[in-house]
Write a structure and sequence with these properties.
708 residues, 18% strand, alpha+beta, 33% helix, single chain
Length: 708
Amino acid sequence: MDDDGDMPVRDGTKKPLIGVIDDGTKTVRFVIYEAENSAELASHNLDKTEVTPQEGWCEQDPNEIIHNIRICAETAIAKLPELGYSREDIVTLGITNQRETTIAWDRLTGEPLHPAIAWNDIRTDSTVDAILAKVPDRNKNYLKNVSGLPISPYFSALKMRWLKDNVKAVRKASREKRLLFGTVDSWIIWTLTGGPLGGLHITDVTNASRTLLMNLETLNWDPMLLRLFGIHRDTLPTIKSSSEEYGAVKDGSVLDGITISGILGNQQAALVGQNCMQAGQAKNTYRSGCFLLYNTGTRRVHSTHGLITTLAYKLGPNEPPVYALEGSIAVAGGAMKFLRDNLKLIKDVAHDTEHIAGQVFSTGDVYFVPAFSGLYAPYWRKDARGIICGLTAFTTKNHIIRAALEAVCFQTRDILEAMNKDCGMPLHKLHVDGMMTANSLLMQLQADLIGIPVLKADSQWDMSALGVGAVAGRACGAWGADWWRSQRSRTHTFLPTTTHDDRDARYTKWKMAVQRSLGWATTKKTITMTGQARRNSMLPQHSDHDNLNRAESRRISILEAIDHVENRRNSILEYNFDNKEDSTIAYEELLKYAARKFSIINPSKLPKVEHTILDDKEYFMSKKECDYGLCECCSAEKKVQTNWESIEQIIENDPEIIFDSDNYPIVVERIKDSDVKELLVNGSLKKSVSLNNLTFRKAISEKLLDTP
């Protein structure tokens, strides 16, 4: 295309273009910016399909995400010629994405092994209990000093663990070293940069900090956390900074050959887009959920009031990391959709919530706590459920709708109160963005209930896309590092109009309503807290042992387990062995390992469990190379001669627990191939059976177990 001055370029001169892939919870967008211009040049978006196979579950199709990205990119780029640009003017790409959403895929085929588990999915409740059972006092905040995060269904490590525990394809891929895990940014980059043919498996610090596996100090995967969650290091992406040139697109699409140079989780991208680049500044994004980030600079603030410590950004490999405190609200815009879809109180979310709620001057003392899937910050109570309280004979739908709007504002105040306590510096103004900020009544209620000015960004700005576009342009030199300092944000300010006493009185009643929402969802801790509830289905059905003592009950349960195997003997003997004697020997050996490939051990005879890194972290962290014989300063005689197993081997060989009919724990250990070899070599088997013929073990275990 000719580069002539008559082209319809906005200011008469052509600038480099930056493309942005914006993957949100509901939509996928592709946005094109002129360098150092906050206005969108061209864009296109498509809705995504969300599937809810069970209550509280939320899944997405990873392949649909990639398909929508390519369609959006083609459509947006097709608009460039009429604006005086071409596809060749796009110098780099930035990627911003929904955080915590987790995908598992096959590194050889490039196919997802399960639908993406969305960030707001709560299926991992039992996995959370299993992890809590391993930490002292079942303290959900035990890992915050390392990762900055509580143990919650919200974060990716729990989703990864659930996939390994419950999806056969994921377990098989893990055993065969074909498994890759990642958040949505990793999946997008790996696919666009070649997939199975050399795709880059990377993520940035902001997304990695949401997994519960990254050490906030080292900015790398933490070995202790990997061990705790049973995640292999090789399945995870390499952690990079948020702004650097990672590699070029190699997928044959319209984006082919363009360099990717910026990655930010969507809320961190909005923080950058709002120009909250100084410590003490904060922004809140109002979408399906709410996400309030407070920039703490290079200082890591470990919250003691229910907030999480996260990475705000790291603008280059050699730049210092910038941290933030974050409060996440699970349900904000989702409450309005609940009023529309479930209660049929409104027809149009954008118009009716403001118009109908504005017809009354207060909620009439009605309070709505939208804890549909539990409460996030600062409570972190997965047992909470939604309630509407304070109803009278005079309550109308107008009051309930207004109460839903106020619930968003009260949850924001909950987070600000916690931030004030953690940082000791009250916030003086709050920057806001997101679709819900179009509701002026909501913004005024927010200012009234937090008592500080609320600054709404220009409605045409998408702060997430703008933020990652700026850091991508910065990495390739197209967007000046000091550009933000020269910009005057276009905002509309909402000032508080209520008294201090009035807002505090309303907030006190909100706290009363929250207390009433807690404890609705309960679980049976004896099984669930150990994470082995699903193993009960693997054991045979037992007769009534109510009148038997514990020892007798335990004896009978083991005998019935053996009978269960006896009943399956015919299935085992269907396999072709060298002769009948071999099959009998194999059957006798199998009886020892009735529960999969495990040997049953009486808990009373177990040796004393040694301390692990989880029990005494300080002891293990204080170890030096000399203690492990890895140094060069000590003589060979003084070096400790120890064969240390890798973390992966330790994970694979960990004992597990099953339960009998009385939920009495039975510790089981894996049988190693080396043990089988020793049996053969020492003649423990009456007649040698070659290891090649032992492939029947896998088939037998599948016959024995109805579930994996």
